[in-house]
Give the backbone structure.
Amino acid sequence: MADAEQDAVGRAILVNAAASSTGSEYLTGASSGALPARATRRPRASTVLLGAILPIALLAVWQLISESGVIPSYRLPAPLTVWQAAIDLAQRGLLFPDIAISTQRVLLGFVFGSILGLVVGSIIGLSRWASLLAAPTVGAFRAVPSLAWVPLLILYLGIHEDSKVVLITIGAFFPVYTTVSGALSHVDRHLVEVGRAYGLGRLSLLARVQLPAIIPTVVSGLRLALAQSWLFLVAAELIVSSLGLGYLLKESQDNGRIDRLFAAIILLGLLGKLTDTLIGFGERYLLRRWT
Amino acid sequence: MPALSVTLAGVSRSFAASGRGGASGRLAASGRGAASGRDAASGRGGATRRVLTNIDLDIRAGEIVALIGASGSGKSTLLRQVSGLDTPDVGSIQIDGTPLVGIDQRCAIAFQEPRLLPWRTIESNIALGLPRGTPKADGAVRVGELLHLVELEGARELKPSQVSGGMAQRASLARALARGPGVLVLDEPFGALDALTRLTMQDLLLEVHSAEPATILLVTHDVDEALYLSDRVVLLGDDPEAPQGSGSGIRRILSVPGSRPRDRADATLALLRAELLDGLGVSSHHRPAPSPSTTVRLDSF
């Protein structure tokens, strides 16, 4: 997990560099290589169609396999059975509360974690003293495997919402913290100096020069944080909960309802993709405004 | 703001020796490096490299002074002292008779690179230079005037990546003028431009100077530019008598005759040009050099 974050930081910084070095290409519209340009392009129908080929093929193969009887249905339910299980759950009013509570937990944890990550990342990224004093400690906390927090959080905060939201907050915090603190130390020295020369104090320098300069990196960090939030949600709900998609997974496993298990997994995938797409829209707006 | 006088008295500046030659001064002088440079200079960090030593210079209000010198002779470092981005270890700088402490609103700087914020339009980049607390309406009027002055009215809504190098540099100049500075500090402002654009920009700077008089201190590598623009040319360099590493000082101050706009092909200027080039250790082939050595030999003046 930590490796994945590091990779993302590296990638984001590279993207940043690419974005600034290809600035002149915007003029000629030849900015094929830069990610911001790609991100600002609206998805065309052909893009959507191409992306849909693989899921449809998977669905067809799945249907063929379950029809052929090679794998028994208690191990691999047919797509239609899974669909019916989802409809059944929805009709009994059991599905939407699960989806709602899980989404709520993810969004709350994501928002809290991102804000904290932004604040702590800014402080540590900008202040040499804060970095010397606190960066090793934050690094050590990051090294703790996320699930190790669960027993402690349950002891402290009980099995209700608080412990789950806090766990997700922890999950969302680190990608944002790492990307922000890393990127702030790479902001173009020249631009920072201009800000200083025109009398900007530390806070207005951060707001007017440094944060805008790292927007592409911050957005990458946010996307990563959102993915982590869903990961931590399922971890939290699998361990202890009475509602939510993780709970649906656990309960389906206990009752041998493999059709519901499949439905829950697919739902998690869809929700994760949906929220990521929403961030993608935000990203497109931010990059258009800030690059 | 009217043009203000600048007085430098005994200004010296040292940096921690980092073995990176001329670049280290610039690096150390910005941001976090400045703190370590200061530590080193006060004897806590070991070896130091002295860049400037004992600079005395009086600049009259409204005067244009060009600083020239070989690479690493501390020109940019001296500008940073005057603009308040850096502080001398020894000596003092006064603007209009009051000491300079840190970043000063009376002073504005423009750099060799335009250094525009890439996410802001040209217009709002210029607005960044307005004095803090300027009412919005006044600011808009002022930015409008400046756009007119530097002939960028057509580009106000464009982003820096959409304009040419010369336009970006004009925007950078306008940003520096936005606060109506008494002292305008320019660090090789036209150094990155092509030769023709540079000539146009030099004339623009003179127009700006007559429209909004400010004291101008500019660093340049271009001897012709120095002679064309300035009232006085200050040559910075190492003292050939002093031991290595004792920092550069003012080797020579040269008053440029005639009033602006000057004839670029003037014969007197050509003589001064040869003299300055010789001071920089470059043979101008204008007259036979006294010896084949190409080192700085200012003592022969």
About this structure: The mean pLDDT of chain B is 82. The longest strand of chain B covers residues 48-59. Residues 195-211 of chain B form the longest helix (17 residues). Residues 6-106+181-190+213-300 of chain B form a domain with the Rossmann fold fold (CATH 3.40.50.300).
